[in-house]
Amino acid sequence: GQSLEQPSEVTAVEGAIVQINCTYQTSGFYGLSWYQQHDGGAPTFLSYNALDGLEETGRFSSFLSRSDSYGYLLLQELQMKDSASYFCAVNQAGTALIFGKGTTLSVSS
Amino acid sequence: DVKVTQSSRYLVKRTGEKVFLECVQDMDHENMFWYRQDPGLGLRLIYFSYDVKMKEKGDIPEGYSVSREKKERFSLILESASTNQTSMYLCASSLVEDNQPQHFGDGTRLSIL
Predict the structure, then answer these.
(1) Residues A76-96: pLDDT tens digits?
(2) Distance CA B29, CA B36 (A)
(3) Are A65 and A55 in contact (CB under 8 A)?
(4) Mutation site for B-interface testing, chosen from A22, A34, A95, A99 by largest number of B Cβ within 10 Å
């Protein structure tokens, strides 16, 4: 079967660093994507990793280890507006995404 | 900016009705997708289409069909709505390359009574 595992909830305070892990078991792996979804909003694309290593985009970074079937999203200098759900998703052949169940991040002051 | 527009933000229908959810994108994307999102289950793929008149089943196609007569429009059809199809429905589109992000509409919250 195909599955993605990520924590259901994470809490942190403003200014902190948080890491959201994602492990996957899928066929036809092309890459790992991350999406952010605020309550009541549409998911929006954050990052994509096709190769091993770290990709940095401002306060957010994403990491992939293909040999370990593992990736993470790192959020630095947390702000209240980062409170949202974060989904990892595997890009498969044929462009269909398989999404994890999402991690709800709550940032408090 | 890419714009993906879903025809209704909220929709209430009755059991047994045939329901149409419409999605239009304005960026000439080849790929279009329909997902449903339920609490604790994440996004689950219902159908997707990589070209006009082409469609592929996703993980949960039962009870649904789709139509793509024009490149910019992808319709989801609930043939005979049931209460277990009450959900948030999200449409997305993307370019054909594997590393291209999907762009989502704001969703349709569908209630079947």
Answers:
(1) 999 999 999 999 999 876 657
(2) 20
(3) no
(4) A95
